[in-house]
Write a structure and sequence with these properties.
- The chain contains 17 helices and 29 strands.
- It has 617 residues and is of the alpha+beta class.
- Helix 7 packs across helix 10.
- Bound molecules: zinc ion.
- Zinc ion binds next to helix 7.
């Protein structure tokens, strides 16, 4: 996942799903016979967008051979977004009947589950509506879940209930939509253009669906069909923007596929929405929210989030921490390795962009330099280790004495360090690419990887034993001696400090989706001195309503030193107002510079990173 606001993703999100596509066929018949028995329960879904009614998606489940009682659950979190969703609040009007239409009793047995007394019926029908009850929020286009006049996205975990005990059964889903609306999804099409198929519930909910009027492009990457669907609320792209956009996605797709050698899917769908969002990865698709202006006019603005989400097709959707699957949708799951799933994906975002020619080597060095500067400027780097920030993703920042640091940032830099260390110790014969391929070959199926497996993969694929590296920089918070690593590729880092306006307020994602974004008080900042506390729920900053971290960044960007800042927050249920005058602080910057004496070895290692040379299989 990618919260688009770099400053804000102090905590955040990931994903993973059982890799159905990875399961080898054990016999000839497996290629075309679905492995479930006729008397087993089976759930098929119909999703309706009613003409002239955009208040909710109306959902119907037809359950054959239901157990009695039949317990239906709406997931409380979505793979990829590590926060509870309060999803039961989005469900209304749950009813059940027999196939013949006789009403059946339904008990709401928890905040996210309903139990139907089937009275022994061989088929039952369950109906309900699914929507965010705040109608303004519900209509607002984003990359996750909405419904407006011309389009909508159906988010699996918040829309489809599962039959407890039967998540592995295949399902059909039929969409009943207003005239002229189309469907964009990674689900398997059938001969009926309104009906799709999923081999299991996990795959069904990992396949978001764009419905409505949208632009559609098809292209081939590495011989495999890809598609991009773009919802601009009925608007279009200029011809030039469309060409740049498709070329960008093709390059990203081909470069990432090239790292692993093949595409682990039959087809892939990029779903873009002009609106708020960020991105979320899925098995053979992604949903990305970018401003309509970027999509329509200058799609290069979407290249980083596109590369990030696409790289997740391998790293997290298939190569996953062992704890992240199979999913328990009713309660939180913890792992030490979100820094790998998200942060190493951030490193490969830069790798893919430079290797594809979308960014220059100068862009690569600048982005990594900026990341090193952000890390050095954060006091939390010496307090919260990458494993710790991964582990505490579900918790209040208080568990880390209110220090917060993003495992995206930490993992991006660890990815860079590991790549440099492996290339250095093997004379560029091996690289982090080999480690990723090893992980894909060994930990993308039934079982995910542990921290020990990851160290084993580095040893097996690339040689060096990085026990000491782990103790210092992965489990620990030792200051990173940058030049010791960068010199292998002929770089060194130059740190500097410059005065900058201090209206700094970090932001943290809401504790539940749809909840308020929270403040992170930066140690030593003017906001902290004025009484802002990490965890305060943000309502308004300088008159602007805060819908997400992007609003905070946007409103504070224009505040000069000496400028007034007023922050309205909720703390312990009570409204609190904090006023302060923006100060001045010393902003840490970092620039990668070339060492004066470049050896052939340094040139080879740098070229290996930037072009993918060296190592390989
Ligand atoms: Zn991500």
């Amino acid at each position: 996942m990618k919260a688009l606001f770099a400053s804000c993703s102090l905590l955040a999100l990931v994903c993973a799903a059982p890799a159905g596509a990875q399961t080898p066929l054990s016999g000839y018949a497996d290629a075309f016979i679905q492995q479930y028995r006729r008397p087993d329960p089976k759930v098929d879904y119909t999703i309706t967008v009613r003409d002239g009614d955009r208040a909710a998606y109306f959902v119907e489940l037809r359950i054959a051979n239901p157990p009695n009682p039949a317990r239906l659950v709406i997931p409380n979190w979505a793979p990829g977004a590590y926060r509870l969703m309060d999803s039961g609040k989005n469900i209304a009007g749950v009813t059940a009947s027999t196939a013949a239409g006789d009403a059946l009793p339904v008990t709401n047995d928890s905040e996210i589950s309903w139990t139907v007394d089937t009275k022994g019926a061989v088929g039952i029908v369950v109906r309900y509506s699914a929507a965010v009850r705040d109608s303004v929020q519900w209509r607002r286009p984003n990359n996750r879940w909405f419904l407006r006049a011309t389009s909508g996205i159906i988010d699996g975990p918040r829309t489809y209930m599962y039959l407890d005990g039967w998540k592995l059964a295949p399902a059909y889903v039929t969409f009943r939509l207003p005239a002229g609306w189309r469907i964009g999804t990674g689900l398997v099409p059938t001969t009926d253009s309104s009906t799709y198929w999923a081999p299991s519930y996990d795959v069904l909910i990992d396949s978001p669906v764009l419905v409505g009027r949208f632009l559609s492009y098809r292209f081939t990457a590495a011989g495999v069909p890809h598609r991009a669907v773009v919802d601009l609320g009925g608007g279009g792209q200029t011809t030039r923007a469309a060409r740049v956009f498709v070329d960008m996605l093709r390059r990203i797709s081909e470069t990432a596929i090239g790292i692993f050698g093949n595409a682990p899917y039959k087809d892939y769908t990029y779903i873009f929405v002009g609106g708020r969002g960020g991105g979320l990865e899925h098995l053979n698709s992604t949903t990305i929210g970018v401003s309509a202006d970027v999509l329509a006019q200058r799609p290069a603005g979407a290249e980083a989030v596109s590369a990030h989400e696409f790289f997740h097709t391998w790293n997290v959707k298939r190569i996953r921490p062992v704890e992240l699957g199979p999913f328990d949708y009713e309660r939180p799951v913890r792992t030490l390795n979100l820094w790998v799933s998200e942060g190493v994906t951030e490193y490969y975002t830069e790798v893919v962009l430079v290797r594809s020619g979308l960014n220059t080597p100068g862009d690569f060095a600048r982005h990594l330099g900026d990341a090193i500067g952000n890390h050095r400027g954060s006091a939390a780097r010496l307090v919260v280790s990458p494993e710790r920030s991964s582990w505490t993703v579900w918790d209040s920042p208080e568990v880390n004495d209110s220090y917060t640091i993003s495992y995206y940032l930490q993992g991006e830099l660890l990815g860079f360090l590991l790549d440099l260390a492996i290339r250095d110790s093997t004379g560029n014969a091996k690289s982090l690419d080999d480690v990723m391929r090893h992980l894909f070959d060994h930990f993308a199926g039934e079982r995910g990887f542990t921290s020990e497996d990851l160290r084993g993969a580095i040893r097996a694929a690339a040689g060096p034993d990085l026990q000491d590296f782990w103790r210092r920089y992965v489990s620990g918070t030792t200051e990173i001696p940058w030049d010791d690593y960068l010199k292998a590729a002929g770089w060194s880092v130059r740190f500097s400090e410059e005065p900058a306006p201090d209206a700094r307020i970090g932001t943290i994602t809401p504790t539940v989706q749809g909840g308020r974004w929270r403040a992170a008080a930066v140690p030593g900042s003017a906001a902290q001195a004025a009484g802002l506390v990490t965890g305060d729920e943000l309502v308004r900053v300088n008159g602007r309503d805060i819908l997400d971290g992007g609003d905070v960044t946007a409103v504070l960007r224009g505040v000069p030193s000496g400028g007034p800042v007023t922050v309205h927050v909720i703390r312990a249920g009570q409204p609190v107002t904090i006023r302060f005058t923006a100060g001045t602080y010393r902003r840490v910057r970092a620039v990668l510079t070339d060492l004066p004496d470049q050896t052939d070895r340094m040139r080879r290692i740098r070229a290996g990173i930037l072009t993918g040379g060296g190592g390989g299989r």
